[in-house]
Amino acid sequence: MRILLVLSLILTAALLLVSFAGAADLTPNELGRVMILEYHKIDYPEERWTRTPENFRRDLETLYAKGYRLINLADLLDRRIATPAGTTPVVLTFDDSSPGQFRYIESNGSVQIDPKSGIGVLEAFIAEKPDFGRAATFYVLPGASKPNRLFNQPEYEGRKLQYLVSRGYEIGNHTLWHANLAKYPEATVRAQVADAQTWIQRYVPDYRTRTLALPHGAYPTDVSWVLRGSAKGTSYSHDAVLMVAGGPAPSPFSRTFDPVRLPRIQAVERELAYWIGYFDKNPGERFVSDGDPNAVTVPTARRDRLRDELRSLRVVER
Ligand SMILES: [Zn+2]
Questions:
Q1: How confident is the model at residue 155 (pLDDT cuts 50, 70, 90)?
Q2: Cα Rg for the chain, rounded, in angstroms?
Q3: How far is ligand 1, taken at its centre, from the CA of residue 38, in Å?
Q4: d(CA 223, ligand 1 centre) in Å
Q5: What is the pLDDT of residue 255?
Q6: Which neighbouring-strand residues pair with 29?
Q7: For 33-287, CATH number?
Q8: How far, in Å, from the CA of 174 to the mean position of ligand 1?
Q9: C-alpha atoms less than 13 angstroms from C-alpha of 245 in its C-beta half-sphere
Q10: C-alpha 300 to ligand 1 mean position (Å)
Q11: Which of 72, 140, 170, 184 could crosslink 135 through cysteines, CB 3.0-4.6 Å?
């Protein structure tokens, strides 16, 4: 029995060494795939659509330890990936502006971010590990009923949106009240999208949402309705449309990258474990930065997968 225990300890130590070495030795491959993680509630208890604050914190620790670094969707869409060489960009998204994602608490006359809310957990982790980056996109619902209307604290809703933008986070369009866009005619779809932006602009003037996450993952009859246009005096323009599932996204340098159909990974225990484990086992599938935003490093054998318009960038084959 004792020998078995010792053996298993040695094995554990060896595995830890291997996984550490793996994270440090990743070869740049900017045609690898990128995870866009999709969180819903940060709250108790852990459920299908709920991640506890502790489990969310653990997700961040795991991602950090395995060499993932945060970027915003804008950076992905603009192919401005400046994470250090050998690291992998990852995107965090939060849908539906539920209370546990961002909560203020009042104590002794001052107002503070609840450390058990999503943004509280994220900010605390970033303070400990500044090289993790600071980025996330919040797909808020400005016109939903309680408790999903702008994080459910009416007196602070403007302050929250302003805080997010001032810290470099993104606000995304998720329609005014989570309308299933597959069910509605063009005028209603356009009004849902434009109204969401109008409401956000009441608190953050001139802010334009750059991306839209489809409520229920349901596309409208014609996707162009949500991409650009105007309704009720507000014009909108989106560079990407996010789905609710589909696995890791193709590299933005790849021919298969389609910003109108950006897949996401639901950040629940099973899906996260599956995909993090998948990239551990298949490191060649993972986007690994070369650390230089002005060059794109790709395996020679995959050079034909580069988008045509990127030929002006310096391509480093390996
Ligand atoms: Zn939603």
A1: very high
A2: 21
A3: 10
A4: 18
A5: 95
A6: 288
A7: 3.20.20.370
A8: 7
A9: 5
A10: 40
A11: 72
Structure token pair of residue 162: 């302003």
Predicted confidence at residue 2, as pLDDT, reads 47
C-alpha 148 – ligand 1 centre gap (Å): 10
Is it the case that residue 150 has pLDDT exceeding 80?
yes
- In the 8-state DSSP scheme, what is residue 137? E
The alpha carbon of 151 and the centre of ligand 1 are apart by a number of angstroms equal to 13
**What count of Cα atoms within 13 Å lies in the side-chain half-sphere of residue 165?**
18
Residue owning tokens 């992905």: 76
Task: Report which of 60, 66, 3, 9 is spatially closest to residue 37, judged by C-alpha positions.
Answer: 60
Tell me the CA–centroid distance for residue 141 and ligand 1, in Å.
8
Q: Residue for token digits 């060896």?
A: 14
If DSSP codes are grouped into helix, strand and coil, which group holds residue 75?
helix
**Residue in the block written with tokens 């480093």:** 316
| CA 153 to ligand 1 centroid distance, Å | 19
Q: What is the predicted pLDDT for the residue at 314? A: 75
Q: Which helix (H) or strand (E) holds 36?
A: strand 35-39
Cα 184 to middle of ligand 1, angstroms: 17
Directed axis angle between helix 53-65 and helix 118-128, to 10°? 30
- How many A from CA of 169 to the centre of ligand 1? 18
Backbone angles phi and psi of 35, in degrees to 5: -85, 130
How far away, in angstroms, is 97 Cα from ligand 1 center? 9
Instruction: Answer for the pair 52, 59: CB distance below 8 angstroms, yes or no.
Output: no
The two structure tokens encoding residue 132: 């993790």
Domain limits of the chain?
33-287
Q: Is 100:47 a contact under the CB 8 Å cutoff?
A: no
Q: Given its phi and psi angles, is residue 216 left (phi above 0), alpha (psi -120 to 50 degrees) or beta?
A: left
The reply to whether the predicted model has a pTM over 0.85 is yes
Q: What is the pLDDT of residues 44-86, one digit of tens each?
A: 999 999 999 999 999 999 999 999 999 999 999 999 999 999 9
Structure tokens at 280: 């551990």
Selection from 185, 176, 116 nearest residue 150 by Cα: 176
